[in-house]
Amino acid sequence: MPGRRSGLWVFGIAVVMVLNIAAVAHAQPTQQPAAPIWTFPDIGTLPDTPAGRLIRRGRDLVTATSMHVGPRVADRAKRFAGNNLACINCHLEAGTKKFGIPLYGIFDDFPQYSARSGHDSSIEDRLNSCMTRSMNGRAMPDDAPEMQALVAYVKFLSTGVPAGYRVPGLGTGKMTELDRAADPERGRPIYARSCVACHNTDGSGIVRAVNTDLGYMIPPLWGDDSFNTGAGMNRLITIANFLHFNMPHGADYLDPRLSDDEAWDVAAYVVSQPRPVKADLGKDFPDLLDKPVDASYGPYADGFSEQQHKYGPFAPIRAAIAKLKKEKGAASSVAPRP
Ligand code: HEC
Ligand code: HEC
Fold it and tell me: Which atom of ligand 2 sits closest to the CA of residue 97?
């Protein structure tokens, strides 16, 4: 099995190389700025000025979130996060790991239209969306010093990335989808084999032994102190790809440890577990045709069940949505509403 797998890898790399050579051979001179490679700036080179200190504080907020804005900090006004996770638990290596949901190179993507809210979303809105869902907390005001520090850090990470350039390696990566539903029962033994040693039998993770205010050594995956039902990590496509390219700890996109099937099924096992419920999720995605196929909460425009939206298969849902969009487009061009 390992032999076959590495054989496939070598084959894959060979294909990629051939494609690259072909791409170079056909490359046209363009006006595009030279594509930056994966070179995020080094925080240690910042001067000890107010601006440099603000960025460093932003990084501290990403790596030790619960120390600064967690549910147990002394100053109640600063208790923005509702759980003891840290941004770095999901934005790996403080937002600098390829396909580990990087925060590198994204600053100029904002403001950006958000299908979830139905209007443009600023970088502050985007951070707050993780604060209220992934961190199960409440929104930070735009002028809160913690918000300003986080924004300064995200901006700093985009230093030198030309506006409009989409760095390859953002998000969670994209493996092939299953043509069956992902199955929590098939995921259970995979969890027992590959995850339990770190994340615990009950998914509750491991807190730091010396100073529990420092949050988790290993973050929880479900239960009261985890992300809520409205979080991106609670969507099957997002978490399955995240797991494929990042878990067990130490895996990366060059060296995935879970097969595609294993990643989908163990992801299904994690999303089948209980977690805090976000109120008012029905208000998300005012245009239901823009709702992601793997949003696990209704309402939906496509007639598929909550179960199928949660576990797949997604191709039939996509086809139904494409058809509805086409009909909607045709209807509005024939009979425009006044
Ligand atoms: C439980 C996991 C989790 C935690 C904790 C978390 N996030 Fe996120 N974050 C996500 C996911 C999932 C996405 C969406 C990724 C995608 O669309 O591919 C995201 C997206 C983002 C984005 C937009 C990224 C982009 O590519 O446009 C920003 C900015 C962000 N998070 C900031 C934060 C900050 C700051 C914190 C801590 C206060 C935080 N997040 C905590 C999971 C998390
Ligand atoms: C060797 C320990 C280890 C193993 C094994 C491991 N993880 Fe993790 N996991 C971590 C650590 C540590 C983090 C926090 C991110 C980091 O520091 O890289 C994490 C983060 C995560 C996250 C995002 C944060 C959160 O709280 O949701 C998910 C989801 C996750 N792991 C799921 C899994 C699954 C599923 C498996 C089994 C396939 C697994 N992990 C195996 C250590 C581990």
Answer: 18
